UniProtKB/TrEMBL annotation:
Organism: Hymenoscyphus fraxineus
The keyword Repeat appears for this protein: yes
Keyword set includes Transcription: no
UniProt keywords, alphabetically: ANK repeat, Repeat
Identification of the protein by name: Ankyrin
ANK repeats: 254-294
Region (Disordered): 1-24
One Pfam short name: Ank
């Protein structure tokens, strides 16, 4: 049977051991100075792409021992996640790879990687991130950050990015279509399963400033199956009946139709845009003038210009006559 107490008694009593000598301020200052030099080299490598310089930083730390090494590692570790973002933003895949191998987290490089102007360089960085176990489902807003780059959007969709901005738990973040910027990307999102029914996609499109671009995108959405008379939905997870849900309803313009939103210029903010052409287009495509929003108001009740009011009245009369004839 082992004699635990005898083994314990054979060890020196910690209470009787001499206290370690305190580290001198000069020694600590020298370590900190060396750490700052390493940090400067780390930053320079993430800007210049000098892989050998970066490796020399980690080799230097590996050559140290004791408190000196711990202090250096502490300084550099605090820098890793910001520096991997910097390297990704500069399109430096090899630098990113080296930083990941030394403890940087791949998710911290995602936003910066999407912002790089060179698509090929951005994709090379993402390849490295995926090799180091990046789960694109952890980045529900990634498609909102691609600078409207069609090739990068296509690549990320092919890697599993959710076209509806859902994360791995099914929660929705920013909606990618709000940032897509081109008909080609809109089509891509739809091809990969963007939810046209529960997205307010058409409503949001009424806020595109340029008339031609606005109408072209609305036309694409109608052709791809959006119901022109769908009412806006609350897309967040607020509980119906709560104050938070009521605020969400207000942001959805009282759950009106795309015609309501167009007449109100709801997504245009304070920009001075004549909404007549987009309102006219919606009416020509069958937008219903008589649908009321949660406030009990029709689109015409929001009209502030004579031209918009006049055309809404014309279509209201036409719809009324059509309804009367149908009853006869």
């Amino acid at each position: 049977m082992p004699h635990f107490h005898e083994a314990e008694n054979s060890s020196p009593d910690p209470a009787c051991s001499p206290l370690p000598e305190p580290l001198s301020p000069t020694f600590l200052q020298e370590i900190d100075n060396q750490s700052r030099i390493s940090e400067e080299k780390l930053e320079l490598a993430c800007i210049s792409g000098d892989l050998e310089l970066l490796k020399s930083v980690f080799d230097h730390i590996a050559s140290l021992s004791g408190f000196d090494r711990e202090r250096h590692e502490e300084h550099i570790t605090r820098q890793l996640d910001s520096r991997v973002a910097m390297a990704a933003g500069n399109g430096l895949a090899k630098i990113v790879e080296c930083l990941l191998e030394h403890g940087a987290k791949p998710i911290n490089a995602v936003r910066s990687a999407t912002r790089h102007k060179d698509t090929d360089a951005a994709i090379r960085v993402f390849e490295v991130l995926f090799e180091h176990d990046l789960d694109i489902k952890d980045c529900p807003g990634v498609l909102c950050q691609t600078n409207r780059d069609e090739a990068l959007t296509r690549y990320l969709l092919s890697k599993g990015a959710d076209p509806n901005g859902h994360n791995q738990h099914g929660r929705r973040g920013q909606l990618p279509f709000q940032w897509c910027g081109s008909l080609a990307i809109v089509s891509l999102l739809i091809d990969y399963g963007a939810d046209l029914k529960h997205s307010n996609f058409l409503h949001t499109t009424t806020g595109i400033v340029d008339d031609d671009a606005c109408i072209a995108q609305m036309d694409l959405l109608i052709r791809r199956g959006v119901d022109i008379n769908d009412r806006a939905e609350v897309l967040d997870d607020t509980e119906p009946g709560t104050p938070q849900h009521e605020k969400s309803l207000l942001r959805m313009a009282e759950a009106g139709t795309a015609l309501h939103w167009a007449v109100r210029g709801w997504k245009l903010g304070r920009r001075n845009v004549d909404v007549f052409l987009r309102v006219q287009w919606l009416l020509e495509k069958g937008a219903d003038t008589e649908i009321r929003d949660n406030g009990g108001l029709r689109p015409i009740d929001y009209a502030t210009s004579k031209s918009v009011r006049d055309i809404l009245e014309i279509y209201s009369v036409d719809e009324g006559q059509t309804g009367s004839n149908a009853e006869v």
